[in-house]
Amino acid sequence: MSKRKMFFRMIVASLLRRRSRMLVALLSIAIGATILSGLVTIYYDVPRQMGAEFRNYGANMILTAADEAFTQEDAAQGIGRIAKSDLVGYAPYRYENVRVHESPIVVAGTDPEGAKKTSPYWNVDGEWPAASGEVMVGANVAESFRLSVGSTLTVSYTPEGKVQKGEALEDLTADYKITGIVETGGSEEDYIYMSLDDLAALTKEQGTLDVCEVSVSGGADAVKKYVDQINSSVDTVRARVVKRVTASEATVLTKLQALVLLVTVVVLALTMICVATTMTAVVAERRREIGLRKAIGAPDSSIIKEFMGESMMLGLLGGILGSVLGFIFAQEVSTRVFSSSIRFRPLLVPVTILVSIAVTAASSLMPIRSATDVDPALVLKGE
Amino acid sequence: MSLLELKNVSKIYGELHALDNVNLKVEKGEWVSIMGPSGSGKSTMMNIIGCMDKPTKGEVLLDGVDIAKESKKNLTTIRRDKIGLIFQQFHLVNYLTALENVMLAQYYHSMPDEKEALEALERVGLKDRAKHLPSQLSGGEQQRVCVARALINYPEIVLADEPTGNLDEANEEIVVDLFHKLHDEGTTLIVVTHDPEVAEVAQRMVVLRSGKIAKEKVNDHFTGKIRFE
After folding, report:
1. d(CA B22, CA A37)
2. Pair (A16, A69) in one structural domain
3. Do A200 and A96 share a structural domain?
4. Is the domain of A219 the same as that of A73?
5. Lower CB count within 10 Å: N or C terminus of chain A?
């Protein structure tokens, strides 16, 4: 039998046949590795999770015309530069001045499905317009004209610039069914919302877009990257970051990540203290065995190697356990805090195991060194 | 040249002379017992001969080398290569089997050899108990494993400290019989004991008192067999 085989046979025997003792050490390492692996998983998943949370506060990128006007096709070209996995949604907007009971008012033509995604914080009483002939009105508009969900709204539009001198103004009028009343606490409550197709039908022209709101996940850096890409590759649109949203997102993220990092470091330190204490107890408990090994000719280096081997094996087992339990822990935290599942990162498994081995080895160094101070003559003394 | 020679060896702890100017020679293949009451210096002498301690004064020549002058590291090497230790409390590693405990001595000495370790256990009549843990063995069986471990590397000297101190009469006889066999095979034996029956079966008995050799007695009727009254 080779020396290496005997070495592993002794380590395995020590771990298996001293189960109750080793279980305590293994438990402390596994708990440390679990929290470490869980927190690091959360640390790396926080931008994605928080990105999704922040998308509730509205679009973080807007597209406008590079020159005078831009079309839906131009907007689509810009949007095409954003990876599908990062695109939460986008809503093109075309604004026109119309009249309701001879009072001027602004109508916003949009894609209601897209607007739902870019403005999830809008509080809609009723439903978003889904079919042709349906509109949603702002709360202020509803109040001014005593409108309610289900009532009919007559909208008049006068095509500007097309009136010849001496000609009577020819109003384009259409009736719409109100499906919802929107409350935002902002200027959105002063508008009427309908689909772009309905607006095109009312104005009898396809028209151009005024703005396109885009919601991108992945944090400030991702948004900045896509803005640069769009601006450098699409001539007809100009992309801009909505700094109000991205800056606060970045601030919160930085603070949250710093907090998670701090907790991780504290947990790591506590684990080291715990492992060092356990190993000190293990060494103290095995002083006679160490004395015996020395008495039958074990050099200090062998004693260090054997105890280090045991603690590294414990680190390996604790790391494997911690990787599995850490993911479950992170998943639980993510489900409870962010209401979404966490992404599994395979790289974290070897990293957790390696860190667990390194931390266990480092915290065992002092107690193991003290093992070499054992005097065989003293500890083996007869009764 | 004697295998072991103590020349004017003293071990002093403050005012206490644990060993006081001791001179002793042990020849190769000799069976010597060291007797004495508690505090007479038996353990101190055992530790010094076993390279686990150094004298304050004097020379300890083992195979011509003065071990009193050797470094701690060299003493470990000498202990590993030349000395087989047997303890009163057996001192087996409790999570290793009888076989693994014997192989442990091989592991530190040279190369573990399962077959050879099994043969050593066979010599002490424990081949069928090779896979048992110390907790599954009786005191006598544990001591025999300890003997097998001490012999596995063919040491120059087997040093036994109260080897029968924790054994009943039957097991005491088994262990002494083993010593007799070892002696017949040419092994040098130094047995520290306070049991006169065990001491008297040796070829020569050295009695220590207050750190000094009070008496030396050669056994004229040496048989190597214990004679119970």
Report:
1. 64
2. no
3. yes
4. yes
5. C
* CATH level 3 topology of B4-218: Rossmann fold (3.40.50)
Q: Provide, as residue numbers in chain A, all residues whose Cβ is less than 8 Å from the Cβ of B94.
A: 289
Q: What is the pLDDT at residue A50?
A: 73
Which residue matches tokens 């409550």? A189
ipTM: 0.90
Tell me if A139 is assigned to some domain: yes
Position of tokens 């471990």? B149
Q: Looking at chain B, which residue has its C-alpha nearest residue A379? A: B91
Q: Do A10 and B113 touch (CB under 8 A)?
A: no
Q: Which of B86, B102, B108 to mutate to test the interface with A (most CBs of A within 10 A)?
A: B108
Tell whether A155 and A282 lie within a shared domain. no
Q: What percent of chain B has pLDDT over 70?
A: 96
Name the domain boundary from A241, A269, A285: A241
Parse chain B into domains and list their residue ranges.
4-218
Run means of pLDDT, 10 residues per run, chain A, 383 residues: 88 87 85 88 78 76 88 90 88 92 92 90 91 93 91 86 58 90 91 93 87 86 89 90 78 83 86 83 87 92 92 93 92 83 86 91 87 86 57
- Claim to verify: residue A358 and residue A273 sit in the same structural domain: yes
A18 contacts on B by Cβ (under 8 Å): 95
d(CA A170, CA A162): 10
Q: What's the token pair of residue A168?
A: 């009577």
Q: In chain A, how many domains are there?
A: 2
Question: What is the three-state SS of A358-379?
Answer: HHHHHHHHHHHHHHCCCCHHHH
Neighbours of A254 (CB within 10 A): 11
> What distance in Å separates the CA atoms of residue A381 and residue A272, rounded to the nearest whole number?
34
What's the rounded Cα separation, in Å, for the pair B18 and A286? 28
Tokens 């066979």 -> residue: B122
The last residue of one of the domains, among A222, A241, A260, is A241
One domain, residues A165 and A140: yes
Q: Quick check: B206 pLDDT over 80?
A: yes
Tell me, yes or no, whether A83 and A213 share the same domain. yes
* Mean pLDDT (whole number) for B187-214: 89
Interval B190-201 mean pLDDT: 88
Which stretches of B79-163 are assigned E, i.e. beta strand? 83-86, 157-161
- Domain holding A294, by residue range, is 3-52+251-379
pLDDT given at position B223: 64
